[in-house]
């Protein structure tokens, strides 16, 4: 009885949060910032790449890609350490 | 003893060439079409994993983990070096774009597939693709061959 009540409460709170999120969503095709418009207008001229995603990933946000590559490197190091005791 | 059947081996042999060509295509066209270093490197690593698992017996004594490890480290160092080369302006500055030289053709309007554009982006794609390929292959090699071996006695 008590457990059912808490499950119901969690569902209601979750439903309220999701309803508020859906109600406050901005209209389709009208982004709230001007940064994406800047990338679409100037990305090809500034980076020479047709692919806007690549121009962002490897040029505007290159530091983020460096972090991703480092994470992969660290994962390989961890696997090596995991199997270091086997010969 | 741990190798796969003849069907898997022949299929791996058939798939390895188009798979590697497709992966290299995705890496080199990363600045023109969807894809890039991560995705192309993952494609090549998938083919590499299939080959390693299919030919586990034949490959066991031949495969050198140090070469893959060296390739991974060198690719990451090349990526960071390319980022540092643009340091006259900022870190990760695209110093080759619109310069007319390597990957330096200026773009105006629609680019129907001129590979010689993008400045430093294709080189970074190549470095990241090499890094992802060698890292994922190394994980497969170490885990597959490591799980077949016996654990050493207590090393404390």
Descriptors:
heterodimer; A: 87 residues; mainly alpha; 4 helices; 75% helix; B: 156 residues; flat
Your description of this structure?
The complex is a heterodimer of chains A (87) and B (156). Chain A has a domain at 2-60. Chain A has four helices and no strands. Chain A has helices spanning 2-23, 35-47, 52-60, 62-82. Chain A is flat. Chain B has 156 residues and is an all-alpha fold. Chain B is flat. The two termini of chain B are 33 Å apart. The model of chain B has no long low-confidence stretch (mean pLDDT 87). Chains A and B meet through α2, α3 and α4 of A and α4 and α5 of B.
Question: What's a concise summary of this model?
Answer:
With 87 residues, chain A is mainly alpha-helical. Helix content of chain A is 75%, strand content 0%. Chain A has a domain at 2-60.
Topology:
The complex is a heterodimer of chains A (87) and B (156).
Chain A lengths: L1 H22 L11 H13 L4 H9 L1 H21 L5
Helix pairs in contact in A: 2-3, 3-4
Chain B lengths: L5 H23 L8 H18 L1 H4 L5 H21 L35 H27 L9
Distance between the termini of chain B: 33 Å
Order of helices and strands of chain B: HHHHH
Radius of gyration of chain B: 19 Å
Order of helices and strands of chain A: HHHH
Give the percentage of residues in beta strands of chain A.
Answer: under 5%
Structural class of chain A: mainly alpha
Largest interface: A-B, 31 and 49 residues
| Structure annotation, total helices of chain A | 4
Mean pLDDT, all residues of chain B? 87
Stretches with pLDDT under 50, minimum 5 residues of chain A = none
* Radius of gyration based on Cα positions of chain A: 23 Å
Low-confidence stretches of chain B: none
Oligomer: heterodimer
Our estimate of the beta-strand percent of chain B is under 5%
Overall pLDDT of chain A: 88
Overall geometric form of chain B: flat
Q: Helix count of chain B, per DSSP?
A: 5
Secondary structural class of chain B = mainly alpha
């Amino acid at each position: 009885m008590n457990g059912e009540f808490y499950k119901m409460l969690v569902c209601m709170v979750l439903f309220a949060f999701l309803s508020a999120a859906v109600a406050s969503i901005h209209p389709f095709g009208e982004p709230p910032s001007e940064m994406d418009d800047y990338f679409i207008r100037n990305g090809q001229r500034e980076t020479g790449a047709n692919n806007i995603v690549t121009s962002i990933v490897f040029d505007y946000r290159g530091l983020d890609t460096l972090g991703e590559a480092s994470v992969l490197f660290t994962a390989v190091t961890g696997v090596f350490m995991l199997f270091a005791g086997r010969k | 003893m741990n190798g796969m059947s003849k069907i898997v081996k022949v299929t791996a042999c058939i798939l390895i060439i188009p798979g590697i060509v497709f992966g290299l295509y995705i890496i080199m066209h990363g600045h023109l079409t969807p894809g890039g270093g991560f995705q192309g490197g993952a494609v090549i690593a998938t083919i590499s994993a299939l080959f390693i698992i299919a030919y586990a017996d034949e490959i066991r004594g031949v495969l050198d983990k140090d070469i893959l490890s060296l390739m991974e480290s060198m690719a990451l160092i090349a990526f960071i070096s390319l980022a540092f080369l643009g340091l006259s302006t900022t870190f990760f500055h695209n110093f080759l774009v619109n310069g007319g030289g390597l990957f330096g053709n200026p773009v105006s309007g629609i680019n129907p597939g001129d590979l010689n554009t993008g400045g430093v982006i294709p080189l970074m794609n190549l470095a990241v693709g090499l890094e992802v390929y060698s890292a994922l292959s190394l994980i497969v090699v170490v885990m597959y061959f490591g799980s077949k071996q016996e654990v050493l006695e207590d090393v404390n």
